[in-house]
Amino acid sequence: MTDITVRNEAAPLGAAGVSEATAADFFALLKPRVMSLVVFTALVGLVAAPGGIHPAIAAVALFFIALGAGASGAMNMWWDADIDARMARTASRPVPAGRVTPGEALGFGLALSVFAVSCMGLLVNLASAAILAFTIFFYVVVYSMWLKRRTPQNIVIGGAAGAFPPMIGWAAVTGGVDLGSIALFAIIFLWTPPHFWALSLVKAGEYAKVGVPMLPVVAGGAETRRQIVLYSWLLVASTTAPLALDLGGVAYGLAAAVLGAVFLVLAHLLKRRPSDRAAMRLFGFSILYLFLLFAVLLGEALARGL
Prior knowledge:
Blueprint (H helix, E strand, L loop, with lengths): L3 H4 L15 H7 L2 H17 L6 H25 L1 H4 L17 H22 L2 H22 L6 H5 L1 H4 L1 H10 L4 H24 L1 H6 L5 H5 L1 H18 L2 H4 L5 H23 L3 H30 L1
Helix pairs in contact: 3-4, 3-10, 3-17, 4-6, 4-7, 4-10, 6-7, 7-10, 10-11, 11-14, 11-17, 14-16, 16-17
C-alpha cells in the first residue's frame, strides 16, 4: 500500500517559507534521459511517415512531445516518491530527496500536461494531441498508479506508454494512425520487457523491499530469463514489419538482422549462464539496439526525402 506520509512530506523551506527547489531540480523531474529517447523515437515516426510537414511545425510537435514526456515523468515521481525514497537507484530524485515538494511535482506535471496537449492540438493537429494526452494518462494512471504495484505484467502492459511516441510523430504528419506507425509501436512495445526485466533481475532485492511485484520477485529468476528469451524472439520477429511495409530498406534489413542476432545471443546466454553481469550486458546492449535500429530507419527516411 502506498505510504501517503512520504508523499506529503514537504521539501526544506527557506527562511521566507518558500521552497528552495532550483531550476535543475525541476529539470530532473522531467526525466531528461527518458525524454531524449521519447523525442528520438517520435522524430523517427515523424520523418518516416508518408507525406510532408513544415520543418517549423515538426519542431513544434517534437517540443510538445518532449514536454508531455517530461510531464509524465514529474507526475510519476510524485506518485512513486514513497518507494523511490527506499531504493538506492532512485533515492536521490528531487521529491524523495526533499528538494521538491510532492505538491510542486504534481502541479508542475499537470500544468505541463495541459500546456503540451493544448498547444499540440492548436498548432499541430488534434490526432497527435489526442494520442499525446492518452500517452500521459496511460503512463501516469494506468502504469504508475494501477499496474506497477499490482501485477508482474506491469512492464508488459505499461510498456505501451513508451511505445506511443513514434505514433504521435506519425500522426503529426498524417493526422492519423496506420500500419506503419503500428509497426514502430510494436517494436518498442516488445523491446520493453526484455530491456527492463534484464535490469530487474539485478535490482530484484530492491523491488521486493518496496513491494513492487516485478517478474523476478514474483516468479523468480529462471522464469524471468525464460520470458526474456521469449520476448526477444518476438521483438526480432517484429523488426521485419518495416521491411514488409517499405519503411525500411537494405540498410535497415542488415541492421535488424545483425542487431537482432546479437540480442538473441545475449538473451540466450543470460538464460544458460545467469549472472548479474550477463543481465547488465543485455540491458546495456538493449539501449544501443533500439537506438541503432531507429537511427537506420531515420537515415533511410531522410535519404528518401532528398
